[in-house]
Give the backbone structure.
Amino acid sequence: MKIAKLSIILVAAAAIVFGLSGLSFAFHSGGVAECTGCHEMHGANSSPLLKGADVSSTCLECHSEKGQSSYHIATNNADINPADHTGAWPYNLTPGGDFAWLKKTIYWTLRNSPNTNEGDSHGHNIIAADFGYTADKSNTLAPGGTFNAANLHCDSCHDQHGQVRWVGPNMTASRDSGPIIGSGSYATSVVPAAGQAVGTYRLLRSELADNSHSQGNPDFSTMTSPVVAIAPGTYNRSEAFTQTRVAYGNYMSDFCGSCHPDMHSTAGILRHPQGVTASGTVQNNYNTYVKSGTFNGTVASAYLSLVPFEEGLAMSAANYATLKGHAQTNDSQLGGMNGTSQVMCLSCHRAHATAFPEMTRWSNEGEFIVYNSLYPGVDNTGTSYSVGYTAAEYKQGMYQKSEASLASYQRSLCNKCHAKD
C-alpha cells in the first residue's frame, strides 16, 4: 500500500513539474486557492497572516523558480547574476515575461561613451522584499496615471481570491453565481455546464472583483467586462521552432488603462491607438509583412507572437470555443488580422517584464534587431544595437526566436503594422 501511495505521489509531482495534464493549474483552479498555501494561521510573516514578508513575496514562493514549468514568472536570485553575460540571464519564457529582467542593469561603452540599460525600465517593478524586488526608482507614479508605484504588488492586477467567473452555458460574467469548477484561462479548460463556472483569464481584476483587497487600490471601474483571453496549456517555452499563441479576445487595453489612463487619452497629446479595430491598411500590412524587405505574406500564416493582436471577441460560448482553438504552440493557428482585429497594449509590451527598455517585446533602442544575420551583441559587430547584451542574452530576450526567421538586417517590428522598411 505504501508503495502504491508513493507511486501516485511521484506521478503527480512529475505532472506538476513538467506541466502535464491539468495538475499544473490545480492550486488556483480558476478561483480562490488553498487557503493554507498563502496564509499561516499561527506565526505568519506579515498581515493578513501571509507566509511571505508581503503579498508579492507570498506569490513568488510558488511563482519564482528557474525552470520552465508554466506558472514560473521570475527566475530565482540564485540563478541570475545581473553582471553575468555567460548564461545567467532570466530563464522563463512566459507570454508575460520574467520579472528577473528587472535585475539586469547593464553598463557598456558605445563610441567611447558610457551607456546604461537600466533594469528598472524593463517592466513592472513589483515590491517583493523576500526576493529582492523593490519599487521603481525613476517613476513614483504609474506612467500616464496616478497609481503609487510604492504600492505595486501582484494583487494590484490579479485577484488573489479569484471570485469573478464565467458562468455556463452562456459564459456570462458574475462574482457569485455557480461554483468555479476549473480555470478558464487555457485551451485545455473545461466548458462549464448550466449552473457551473470557470475562472477568468489569469484572475485579472475588473469592476466585478472585490478590489478592496488590491494593493494600492487601482481604479477598475471602467472594466465592465473581465479580460477575454485564452493561453495554450503549456506556454513557458522557447520559440526557437514554433510560436506560442495566446488568443487575446478583448478588453486587455482597458485593463492596462486602469493604471495608465493618460496613455489612452488624446486630450492635449496624441497616443498610439489601442482597443479599436485596426484599419484596412494596418490589417493588410500585418498580413503581408514577413520581415524587412519581404511583403508577400498571406493571412493564413501572418501571425507573429512578437506582435500579437486582439481578435475583438467578447466572451460567449462560441467565442470561448474559438479562442481555445486558436491558443496553440504547434503553429497550426497562425491566421492574421481580419475585420474585428485590434491593436492592444500587449501588441508591443509584455505584462511583467522583458529584456528591453519600456518592457517592449523587441528593442526599440537601435535601428536593427538583427544585424548581419546575427542578433546584436557586445561580442559581435552589432554592438551599436546591443543595449549592452551579448548576442546570446539578446536572443533570450527574443524568446530564442531564430535569427533566420527575420531579415538579415531586420528593423523594428513596428513595421509589422506600418511596413516602412
User: Anything to note?
Assistant: Residues 2-18 form the longest helix (17 residues). The radius of gyration is 21 Å. DSSP finds nine helices and ten strands in the chain. The beta strands are 106-110, 113-117, 165-167, 172-174, 180-182, 197-199, 228-230, 247-250, 368-370, 410-411.
